[in-house]
TrEMBL record, chain A:
Protein name, as recorded: F-box domain-containing protein
Gene3D superfamilies: Ribonuclease Inhibitor (3.80.10.10)
UniProt domain F-box: residue ranges: 2-24
Phylogenetic placement of the source organism: Eukaryota, Metazoa, Ecdysozoa, Arthropoda, Hexapoda
InterPro entries (alphabetical): At1g61320/At1g61330-like, F-box_dom, LRR_dom_sf
Automatic annotation (TrEMBL), chain B:
Similarity-based family: Belongs to the SKP1 family.
Protein name: S-phase kinase-associated protein 1
Keywords (A to Z) from UniProt: Ubl conjugation pathway
Source organism phylogeny: Eukaryota, Metazoa, Ecdysozoa, Arthropoda, Hexapoda
Coiled-coil region(s): none
Domain annotation SKP1 component POZ: ranges: 4-69
Keyword Ribonucleoprotein found: no
UniProt KW Cell membrane keyword: no
Pathway: Protein modification; protein ubiquitination
Superkingdom per UniProt: Eukaryota
Length: 575, 169
């Protein structure tokens, strides 16, 4: 049962009582948070009405199997009393979307201590509670519901996430008291809106941490944006014992001043011995992070830099500075200096650069001639590759340079030419001829027309994903030639996904070709998806849909704000 | 060539090269424990596997022999990252190996692969079972696994109701 995906586990629950018992215990781990709502003024709602959930789950055969919840649309915590009475003791992860004006700090803390004693991960959104001076009533005012005279603390809480803080200046004493109650806190996620005093919120949270006894236990910190003053506070926290394993910031600022490179260097140097994951996301409208040199980090396994503006990390010497790097993600259009991030001129360094690196995601517009060959000599053990913007020639070099690839994602756009030839290994002119000959697949085998290596030569490839972006003009980045002579031949694949974004009229591949791929790849999870450039309109077809009829399925209209939802740390909030 | 005697629950003995046996995490540990406790470095280890019968043990050893030159996968290799059985892949040989097996045998093979810590075999057998579940109706699953529904009253309907609320992580 451990090996089964959620869909199969849900089916297994329906087979018989014994299977039900075995599968149910696994469902709780693999299922995401249950979305609950007290009021549902608008329909259709994605959540479940709390009262319905309680009535159904009270009759559950084996008790409630869920431990993760996201609760919203309520006015006061009392409205959830019945829910917490029945299920509070099984809750481990809770996303509590408190009402905006909520300020009943006593009810909140009573809830955590008395009703959800095993809570490990908590996320709370915007509310007035942080403005209160005291966390547990006033100094001489011990709440009735708390065990009098006992030390009040939330020993199980490991992750605390604050989101959507708007126009809020919190009380430092409230935060200090909260941190005092949570000595085992390991992960802190602060996601705020910087237009509305968000930077002040973060500053006060960081200052409150200064007196936190459990500072040394905090291993992971995510801040939605960073300022120079935050960095200075972080440097002071490092002097007090802050030793992070994971540090991530999403720089969403549009008004704030620049971040001095030397300050960032100083903070990173203070964490250099322990940091295993560093993620920088600069999405501001001007290059706020001034050039800095990434210090040597002997323990760093994951480095991710995503930027919409120019960013300079200095020269990355993988062999001496980042010897344990396993995963490298660099993303952004023309924002990196290729010679700095991939210093390929030094042959000696290149040969031993990143032997542990297995996951590589490359930015578009890499100014390195024959980059697959050059990078394969630096990172020979890459098994999971993501490339943005490719040519036929570049694809051939990828197949030859990394023949042991296991997972590949190609992101191509209308700036790129048709890549049938690169995918199949068939010369361009022959591809053109094949395009004009219907049923050509039946007339000639691939090997008869193939002259170079193609994607089918990657014998270890198990997952192939392709994203075609044609924002303004329809274009055929791939045609049925790639469909018949490449995709349909990859019988060892476990997963194939083709997404077309921007011109959601029809797939580049014909219906017959898609049907053929489905029938040939019997053991593969196949998905074809088309969507507009904001993800508002999308049509996703799995195997069963395609076998019915590709073009007559109804598209799904997505929530317009979906692409505006913030992204919180994968491991903290996505549970 | 150093050998090890592996004995099944029903008493059948298999003489296996230690190199091959060590591709099983469990057998490797047993051999190393035997070496540490034995004074005679030439002595042949004997390992009793009380939970696996001869027919199943023979299949495990047959699979190990076929894959003896594959790289050994760590037991905790994450399936979700798509790299689970990628090194070994599910070759045509694997498909032919599993094709004639009754599902009952496959289930026993899963337990044996799990007990003996043979990650590659565990992956492909679980994948096979998963393929017998995913995309099928509940009745088809019951038929495939020769099971009967023993739900009482509205228990099945209740479970269906709960399932509707589960979403991917």
């Amino acid at each position: 049962m451990d090996q089964l995906p959620l869909k199969s586990l849900l089916l297994a629950r329906l087979v018989c009582r014994k299977w039900n018992a075995m599968a149910t215990t696994k469902v709780a781990n693999k299922s995401g948070p249950i979305q609950l709502e007290v009021y549902q003024p608008w329909k259709p709602s994605r959540g479940i009405k709390v009262s319905i959930f309680i009535d159904v789950m009270r009759n559950s055969m084996l008790g409630c199997p869920f431990s993760k919840y996201s609760i919203s649309s309520f006015h006061a915590l009392e409205e959830l009393d019945r829910f917490f009475f029945h299920f509070g003791r099984t809750i481990k992860h809770l996303d509590l979307n408190l009402p905006e004006g909520f300020d009943d700090t006593q009810a909140f803390i009573t809830l955590l201590i008395r009703k959800i004693p095993h809570l490990e991960s908590l996320r709370i959104g915007c509310c007035q509670m942080f403005k209160q001076m005291y966390l547990i009533g006033r100094p001489n005012d011990v709440p009735e519901s708390l065990p009098f005279g006992k030390k009040v603390y939330l020993g199980c809480l490991r992750t605390f996430c604050v989101g959507n803080i708007i126009n809020m200046i919190p009380s430092k004493s409230w935060l200090e008291a909260f941190f005092k109650m949570t000595p085992n806190l390991e992960k802190l996620v602060l996601h705020v809106n910087f237009k509305e005093n968000g930077n002040t919120f973060i500053r006060i949270v960081l200052e409150a941490l200064m007196n936190h006894d459990g500072l040394k236990n905090i291993r992971s910190l995510m801040i939605s944006c960073l300022t120079e003053s935050h960095l200075r506070t972080l440097i002071k926290l490092a002097e007090c014992g802050l030793r992070l394993k994971k540090f991530r910031f999403q720089d969403l600022c549009i008004h704030l001043t620049e971040i001095n490179g030397s300050t960032l260097e100083t903070f990173l140097a203070s964490q250099a011995d322990n940091l295993e994951s560093l993620e920088i996301d600069q999405s501001s409208n001007f290059p706020r992070i001034r050039p800095f040199q990434l210090p040597p980090m002997k323990s760093l396994k994951t480095l991710s830099v995503v930027s919409s503006q120019r960013i300079s990390l200095g020269i990355l010497n993988y062999s001496s500075h980042l010897p344990k790097l396993e995963k490298l993600t660099l993303r952004g259009y023309d924002v990196f200096s290729s010679s700095n991030v991939f210093p390929h001129s030094d042959g000696a360094k290149r040969s031993i650069a990143g032997q542990f690196l297995t996951v590589l995601s490359l930015p578009s517009k890499l100014n390195i001639p024959h980059f697959p060959k050059v990078l394969a000599s630096m990172f020979p053990n890459v098994a999971d590759l993501e490339v943005r913007g490719v040519t036929n020639e570049c694809l051939k070099e990828i197949w030859e340079s990394w023949p042991r690839l296991e997972k590949l994602k190609l992101v191509v756009s209308h700036f790129d030419d048709n890549i049938d030839s690169g995918l199949t290994g068939i010369p361009d002119e022959v591809c053109a001829e094949l395009r004009n000959e219907p049923n050509s697949e039946n007339d000639c085998g691939t090997e008869n027309v193939k002259t170079a290596t193609g994607i089918t030569d990657l014998k270890y490839l198990r997952s192939f994903e392709m994203e075609c972006r044609a924002m303004w003009i329809p274009c055929q980045i791939i045609t049925d030639v790639a469909g018949y002579f490449a995709l349909a031949k990859m019988t060892s694949l476990r997963k194939l996904k083709v997404t077309e974004i921007g011109v959601p009229e029809k797939f580049d591949l014909s219906n017959e070709c898609i049907q053929n791929i489905i029938k040939t790849l019997k053991h593969t999870e196949v998905t074809f998806k088309i969507m507009d450039d904001h993800g508002r309109w999308q049509l996703e077809l799995g195997r069963a849909d395609i076998l019915r009829n590709t073009y007559e399925s109804e598209p799904q209209l997505e929530d317009h704000n979906k692409d505006k939802e913030y992204v919180v740390d994968d491991h903290s909030y996505a549970y | 060539m150093a050998l090890v005697r592996v004995i099944s629950s029903d008493g059948a003995a298999f003489l296996v090269s230690q190199r091959l046996a060590k591709r099983s995490g469990k057998l490797k540990t047993e051999i190393e424990t035997f070496r540490k406790s034995s004074d005679n470095s030439e002595a042949q280890p004997e390992i009793r596997i009380v939970t696996i019968r001869a027919e199943i043990l023979r299949l495990v050893l047959q699979w190990l022999q076929q894959h003896q030159n594959d790289p050994v996968l760590p037991a905790n290799q994450n399936e979700q990252d798509g790299r689970g059985d990628a090194e070994m892949g599910q070759s045509q040989w694997d498909r032919d190996f599993l094709a004639p097996m009754d599902l009952g045998i496959v289930m026993e093979l899963i337990l044996a692969a799990n007990h003996l810590e043979v990650k590659g075999l565990l992956d492909i057998t679980c994948k096979l079972v998963e393929s017998k579940i995913t995309g099928r109706t509940v009745d088809e699953i019951r038929t495939a696994f020769k099971l009967k529904s023993d739900f009482k009253g509205n228990e099945e309907e209740q479970t269906r109701l709960e399932n509707r609320w589960c979403v991917e992580n």
